[in-house]
Design goal:
By secondary structure, the protein is of the alpha/beta class. The chain has a single domain, classed as YbaK protein (Alpha-Beta Complex). It is 30% helix and 26% strand. The radius of gyration is 14 Å and the shape is globular. It starts with a helix and ends with a strand. 34% of the residues are buried.
Length: 155
């Protein structure tokens, strides 16, 4: 399944003729490990979190050096309750394990919300459906390809 997510992501970007770079590396399981192996800043990591807001799952994208601000996120998403998806829910929704999810909820029929602070990063880096494959693209390319809803979501 992980390969198919990577293939689908590349196909989505290729179909729109959007530029990106692929980096193959040793498997990484934290944002800090990923930034170190990529030789990039932690802030340039696009951390994808699957959360449940009331009864709906969503994909929330944050700079990797930030944490989800639950109160801000609930307000922005118009929800009363917010929680992280369990590993089992993440696997069921995406076929992936946490840490390998790309910031493209559209690949999983999930709405994508992006923290506004990510716009400060000229380049974004993220795992592309596999702990050993990363993609690098500009913030503008990400927004053009995914069209996420933007809000203040991180602290």
């Amino acid at each position: 399944m992980a390969d198919s997510v990577f293939v689908r992501l590349c196909a989505l970007l290729d179909a729109r003729q959007l530029p990106y770079e692929v980096l193959h590396h040793a498997p990484v399981f934290t944002s800090e490990e990923a930034a170190a192996i990529r030789g990039t800043t932690l802030a340039s990591g696009a951390k994808a979190l699957i959360c449940k807001v009331d009864e709906q799952f969503v994909l929330i994208v944050l700079p990797a050096d930030r944490k989800l601000a639950s109160k801000l996120a609930k307000k922005a998403l118009g929800g009363k309750s917010l929680r992280f998806a369990t590993k089992e829910e993440v696997l069921q929704l995406t076929g992936l394990t946490p840490g390998s999810i790309p910031p493209f909820g559209s690949l999983f029929q999930l709405p994508t919300w992006c923290d506004e602070q990510l716009a400060q990063q000229p380049q974004l880096n993220f795992n592309a459906g596999d702990h050993a494959i990363s993609l690098k693209l500009t913030y503008e390319t990400f927004v053009q390809a995914e069209q996420p809803r933007l809000a203040a979501l991180a602290e």
